[in-house]
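Review box. Two proteins, two foldings.
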Amino acid sequence: MTVTQIFILLLVLFCFIGAWYGLSYLLSPQMDDADGIARVTGNCGDTMEIGLQIRQGKVVKTHHWTDGCTMSRNCVEAAARLAYGKTAENLRLINMTHIVDDVGDIPDSHLHCAQLAEISLHKALENYFSKNNPAAQTDTTGGPEKSTGRT
C-alpha cells in the first residue's frame, strides 16, 4: 500500500466517524420543553441525561444523552424507551433490572451503567414532581452519584 492510499483510507475513515457522530447528535436533540429533566454524573465519570415530557399523566416524549461508552448509551436509551407511555407513578417501578433485561447481556463490569440510567430516570421524575406537585417528591435513588437537575 502506498502512502497516498493510506492517506485516502484514513480520510475516508475520518469522514465516516464524523458522519456517525454528527448523525448521533442530530438524532438525539435537546428537549427544550421537558417537564422533568436530570443530568447525573456517576462515580465512573459518565454523565447521563434524561428528559421527560408528560401529558395527561403519561410520558409522551423522552430525551436521552450520555457522554459515556456504548454500554452507557444503550442503558440510557433503554431507560428512556421503558419510560415512554408509562404513567409518572409507574416510572418509579423501573429499575436497573428492567434496563438490563431490555439491553440484554451486560458484562458485570458495566452494571453501573444500568444503575446510572435508573438514577437518571428517577431524578428526572423527581424534577417533574418538584415542578408539578412538591408534596409528591420523594428520593428514589439512595445512591452517592452527583446530580444536577436542569430546567
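Next protein.
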Amino acid sequence: MYRTYLLTLLLFLLFTFNAESSSACTYSSSPVDYYYASSDVIVVGKIETVKLSKQDHQTVTVNIEKTFKGYELKQMVLNQPQLEGCGVWDFSDDVGKTMLLYVGLHRKTKRYVALSYRGGPVERMSEELYWLNGLPMSLKRTRIAGTIELYTESVANYVKYPFEFIKNIAGIKVKVFSDKNSYELVTDKNGVYEIWDIPVGKYKVEAVLPPDLIPHLEMEKGPIDGSHRRSLYDSLGFLKENTKYSVLFDIQPNRCAGIDFIVNQKTK
C-alpha cells in the first residue's frame, strides 16, 4: 500500500514541474502565475514541528497565517517524501520559520505535499508575494518581474556546497525592451524588479551589473536556453568580455514572466 502511494506521489511531483524546473535543482524561470495554476493550496505559514516517520517521510505541521489559494485552514500537515536527489524539500532546519508554500493535494490519499523549486522563507519571496497580494487582479494583468540574488561560489567545497545564498541586492538596474518599447527598472529594497501592464510581445530582460558582480555560472546550466549559455562563455568556459546578462520572454495577454538573476562577487 505504501509503495503504491509513494509511486503515485513521485509521479505527481514529476508532472507538476515544467521542463525548465526539472533541468535545474536551484533556479526556475517559470513565473508565479504558472505555480499559482499548478498548486492546489498556497499559504504563508510558520513551521511548527517536523517529525521523521518510519516510512522515510517528514510530517510537517504548519500554522497558517494567510491563504492565497485553497480552503482557509488554521493548520496544515505536510507529508514530505525524503528521497535522494534534487526536488525533495527537507524541512529539518525550518522549524520556527515563516514560509511561502505552494502545496499539492494528492486526490486519493488527501495528503498535502509542499512542491519543490518554489516557495521558501518569506524574506526571500518578496517578488512572488507582490503578485499574490495583488490577487485576483494579478490574474488579469501582464507583468515582468524577478530578483537579483547574490550567491557565494564556495569553490573549496564545490561538490558538497556548490553555492550558498547571501542576500537579494537593491539598486541594480534592469532593462526591459522590445522593438517598440523600452523600460528601465531598478531593484527595490527587497532586490525585486517588476513592471506591470506591459504590452504583449517579445521582450529582452537585461541585468546591468556593476563591476564588482558577475553572473553565476551555475545559473547558466539551469533555466536559460542552451544557445544563450553558449553565447555567454567562450570555448574554455570563461565569461566573454562585455557580455550582456539577458533573457528573452514572449509576454502573452494576462500572463507574467521573469527570472531571478543569480550573481557572485567578483574575485580580485
